TrEMBL record:
GO biological processes: monoatomic ion transport
Compartment(s): Cell outer membrane
Protein name, UniProt field: Sugar ABC transporter substrate-binding protein
GO MF, one annotated term: porin activity
Record's keyword annotation contains Signal: yes
Topology relative to the membrane: Multi-pass membrane protein
Amino acid sequence: MSANLGSIDGVWSRLCLGAVLVLLAGCSGSGKDLPPVPPEQRELAVQQGYFYEIAPGDSVSIFVWGLNDLSGTVPVRPDGMLTTPLIEDMPASGKTPSQLARDLEKEYAVYVRSPIVTVIVKGFIGLPSQQVRVIGEAVTPAAVPFRKHMTLLDLMIAVGGLTDFAAGNKSVLVRYYGGERQEYSVRLDDLIRDGEIAENVSLLPGDILIIPEAWF
């Protein structure tokens, strides 16, 4: 009896997930097919101004030239702050490594003459606005830190590809571009299973990929 209940629960969970994905993909209410990602947004040039910003959960190595006692590797706390010798609470989240280094130099200057600081980020997590999220029928749905020149194929490799239940050619890319929410059709089956490289597109920080389940 318990095995049957477990089986029913599993089917019910999959049906619920499918319903949620249909609502997210939205089908936008118009009943019309979504457009493909426009050519101007496929160009790698749209990513040229991207700089990584430190996020909670990141690990940063701080090197203060000539002062080993002030150097070391520290985590960025969930509140976006970090603690180093002599500095208890330094805002780090949302800064580039160079910006954080300059801010640390100002703080250390109270104690040290002309400090020179270098910051190296390790264990990248990424701010939500600098992640690409995958939900639905990916092998391992996840929030993946965006990296420069990232493409749809790179993202699918990071999440392990499609499940056997995926309707890959009905996938939707949600993008906030120019302050507006936009939805585009992406054909993951053609890209991954048929090798149609023309279906590969450039991604932007903050993109959301929704992969619905096939209804057999």
